[in-house]
Structures are given as C-alpha cells and as structure tokens.
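Newbie here. three chains, one complex. Structure please?
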Amino acid sequence: MICLGCSCLCDDLEFKNEENKITVGNACLKGFKRIDAFNKNRLISSINKKEASIDDAINKTIEILKNSKKSAIFGLENSVLEAQNESIKLGEKTGSIIDNFSSVYGGYLINRFLDGSVNTCTLDDVRDNCDVSIYWGCDPMSTHPRLMSKFSYYPRGKNRQRGWEEDRYTIAIDARKSLTANITKKFIKVSPGRDFELFKAFKDVLSGKLPKIGDKKLLMNVGTSIKKAKYGVVFVGDGLDYSMGYMNDFIDLINDIGFKLQPVMDCIGFNKLLFERFRYINSIDLEDKSYAKDNSIFNLLKGDDIDSILIVESDIASYLPHKIAKKLKDINSIYIGPHSNLTAYLSRINIPSSISGVESGGNAYRMDLKEETAEKVIDSEFLSQYEILSRIGEGL
Amino acid sequence: MRDETFIRNTYDISYVAKNNKLSPMEIYKLLPQTNCKECGEETCMAFAFKLLNKGTTLDKCTPLYEEEYKEERKELEKILKPIMEADVTETGLVIHEDLCFGCGNCVVACPVNVAEDPKGCAIGKGASSDKVILKVENGKVKAQNIERCRRFGEHKILCNACITPCPTKAIEFPGG
Amino acid sequence: MSDNDLIIISYEDRNVFKQDSPFDNSYIEKMAIIELTEEDMNKNDIKDDENILVYNDNGEVVVKAKKMEEGDVGIASMPKGPWFSVLLPNNIEDFYKHINAKIKKTEDPITTIEFIFD
C-alpha cells in the first residue's frame, strides 16, 4: 500500500489485517501510527462542543457558509488530490480565501521549486545518481524518516553501486544537532537566523577565497566536496525560512554550484495544484483569483476580514502564536479531520473524516511531484474528506 | 507517577548507551564467584556471558537471593534491566525498541540484507525477501535469521553497518 | 535565582504524532519542555526535570527543564507546539526571527492547554 504519512509517499508497505490485528511491514513509526490510530483519539462530530450527528454538523456548516460575509478554507496538506480539488470548487462557490501551511513556512522556496527557476530532479534520480546531498534547515530523520534510507543516502542506485560509505557524501546545516546531523558525514552548525552569512562564506570558498566566518577548515573541506560533486542535491526545510530576505541569495548559490533543490515539506502537492490553476501556491482570494499577503492564515486570523473558516486536517493552532490561534474561538470555525487536536478543540464545529489512504483512497503527489494512487485498506463508517466537502458544496 | 516512570526509562537506556563497555567482567564482579554451578553453568564467568547475551536470567543464581548478596543483586538488576528488556539476539545484537522509529537506515545499510534482497533492501525499499536479517514491522526494526549476521559463527567479523546509520543509537552490541 | 536571556530555537519532535491527543499526559511530557545546556541550568540554579517559567513580551509558560545532550550556552530549544506558541510574536515580520526569552525557577505546575487557550 501507499503511505500518505508524509510526502515521501512510501509505496512498499505490507498491510495485513488478521482477526482485527493489524500488522504493517516496512512503514516507519510515523506511517504505522497513522494506520494504527484508526481507533484512537478519533474526532467526534460536534456543534459548539455538544455532540451532534454528522448530518447536523454538515448542515450547520452549510448554514454558516451561506450567511458568511467572507470565509476562508485552510489546510488539506495531508489530504488527497480529489479532496483538494473539491475544496477549490467549494471555495470558488463561496468566494472564499484559500490558504495552506506554506504561507507560514516554506512558501517562497516551494514557489521557486514550482516556477522552474531552480533545477530540480526526482527522488529516483537522487537514488540513482546523487553523490553529494546537503540538508539545510531540515531534519528529514524526524519529519520524513525514510527519505535517507529510500533515496538520498543509504540505498544503492544505478550509478551509485558501492554503498553509502564510499559513494555518497552528506552535509547537515542546522542551528541544532538534529537526528539528521547525527548521521551525516559533516555537520555545520549555524547561529539561529545567520544562514545568510554561510551563503557568503560558501561563495568565498567556491571562488577560491578564504571564508570570513565559521570553522574555516570545515568550510574549505565541505566546499571542495561541493565543487567535486557530480550530482548534488540540496534538501531544504522550515529551518531556513528564518533567514527570509536572503532567499534569492540562497537560490543563486544553489544555481551557482549546479545543485538541485528539493523542499522537504508536506504541502507541496496541494501547492502544485493551486499553482497550476492560479499561478499562486497560497493566500488566494478565489472571488477574484488574486493573491495578497493579507490572505495568509496568520494575517487573516489577526485581522477581521473573515467571519468563518473551514480547516481540513491541519493542526494550524499548534503552530501559530497562541493569541492568533485563539481567534478561532471568536469566529465560525469548522474543523474537518480524522483525529482530534488543538485546532479541533478551538473550533466551533467538528466533522470527523476517514483517514486518507487508510479508510479511503485517492491520489497524491510525492515531494518530487510524482503521482501515486492510495487505496483503502480498512473499512470504516467515516465519510472521506472529498465526500464531506462535496456534500457541503451541494448544500450551498 | 507517570512522570517518574517516564524519566526512569530514559535514564536506564542512556546508562547502556553510554556504557557500551558493559562487559561480562563487570557482571562477574557482582556475582558470588563461587562457581557453585547452581545456575547450570560451569563457572560464574560463563553465567555472566550468558546473562549479557540474554541466554539465561538472573534468578537462576539462587545464592544471589540470600541476604549476603542483597546489594550485589540490586546493582545487577539495575545494570541488566535495559538488556533484559531489550530485544537481544544470539549475536548480542540489542534493539532498543523505545528508541527505534523505523527509518530503515539499518535495513538498507546491512550488507547481508543488500546481498539477500537486491530488488528490495539494496535499492532502499523495504525487505522483500524472507532471508534478510533486519526488517521493519509496525514502525520498529526486528531481527531475524540472525545466523546470517556477519558477527555470527566461526568466521565472524566486527561489522558495524547497522549501528553507524542509526540516528538514535537504537542498535548496539553491548558485548563489544 | 537570576533572570537570564536565552535564544530559543524550535524543532519537530519525532515522538509526537499528528494522531496524538494534546490532552494526553504523554503528549504533555514530550511537548511542555525546554532543553537547556548544563551551563545554563547551573547559572539559573535549575536541575533536570524541574519546572521553570519561560517568559518574554509575548507571554509566559511553565514547562519542564531538560538537559541538552550537546549545545551552545545561551541557546535553548523547544518542540514546536502549543507551549512554544505562547512565546511567539504576533507580527509576521518578527515571527521568523529566533525567539528571545528569559527563564526563572518556579514551584508552579506545568501550564495546561486549557489555561493557555481558554
């Protein structure tokens, strides 16, 4: 089966269900928990904290959206393309603003990844060819546990037959010694928010000058490996966004050294869908298809432009400043998802859904935009996110 | 209450992780050293080896449970606890399940897995052959076919291929 | 007991899953923590597993102190989540900068989610 636990979309899971005892082969713990949690902490259908039938919760949602002056749709990062498409349809019907997690973290990089202004490749190319990989401001071992075992470090590839000790060189760059940094061949520690100094230091090293900051020997050493790289890939995550304002320098550096870019972020599939339709990846007002920074979840909840919000499987409240997250209690907030979380707790209406890729099928993009089809493996009474969204749309 | 157990578990694991040198000698020092054979072994040293490789249990040493050895028994229980709880195999391979999160780095890096499963482990996928040593199940790595491990048998070598790629030090060979 | 300025960096905890309930004890044990270097702990007379108050202009929160395996003096880390979010600024311009905060030993219990959000 295909795992939708993160944007690695592992395709080699072995699922067994014998007498209601579930065994999953090859999935990492994150992927296993997603399947195993089919009977744990499930969201309960409710209106204003009072248990209600799903029909009532959906009807109440329709009523809210009908009476709403301006609404927003947020999330769907871990959903399937069918539900994502349905959310766009719904948003067009209601003239909503549509946004996702990339407006909080990683948006600029994903945009550059999608608009073709930086070199990219597939994860299969990474496995077969990559000899130098850099993990900058990301910790795939924690967030995408099988990325390095399946693709970037440990496997034998077509042109990388001798194994990771000889054939692959890895560098972690982060503000803390992450799990990824524990196993890469080199680790460069940067002071929080000072990544841009490292761009300059690398530029110096690559043009044969001595770097002005940091461990000069280490930087020269890493610089030599980067210069010698035949097929280099830079994996980037949330950590780098702290150096906003220097993002162009970063992209220039990647292009200069001839490396490929791969963001390690989950929302990339939905971003592609939005980018193809509207040329923007988030913060879009579907009423006039326009983009504005004020349409990002951060600013929407801070301001007073929206009176209702529909959130689909995204625990945004755990990531935003708590004063902003609290706003969910003051407006008509609807949470749709398989499990309960802080966002559901703060929302006025909770609508439980099936677990995508476990209790319902659908298509999804891997982080390198390869499309996979996930199938249902466990029967359940829960409606899929697609079904919930289309029922809301029909009711309007 | 909950807090306490959580903390204690973490402590015990780090004890083993930092004391890789936990040797048969350390165990032996705490045993009665009388070679009484009560446990079924010829010597206390042999018993220590078996304990380390999980081939026997501490309660087989009945004299330890007499008042005279109370302190030693307590200490032994403390240092052996993490090993007894962990999944120890015949080669002394210990998998700390609470640290493992199934990334599969060891599965793909193990040279025996690579040789036995060229279309699976070798190219980064999960195990597709029954002959592999390491395989991830329910999010944790499990050891099987341990007689194929390079550390096993007459021509054994001190292979480290599964230990080095582990980011949480969930795999170790406490015997060295 | 002196106040002390720290830079706090956040991270994703591999042991926390999207399916966990934020009201479970195990979730709180993993998320309501701050990791400090031994030097920073000593400087503030804080021991491993003691409760400390972390505060800045944006808010204050009581979490458990944990000793960092290796790190730099003056830099602490917290898992991204409800407790860390109390310290985040309300302006998106400042949101991406690292977070500064002070710490103080306290006898108060760990701040509950209900307290933060109700």
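Moderator note: Chain A has a mean pLDDT of 95. Chain A touches chain C through 49 residues (CB under 8 Å). Thread marked as resolved.
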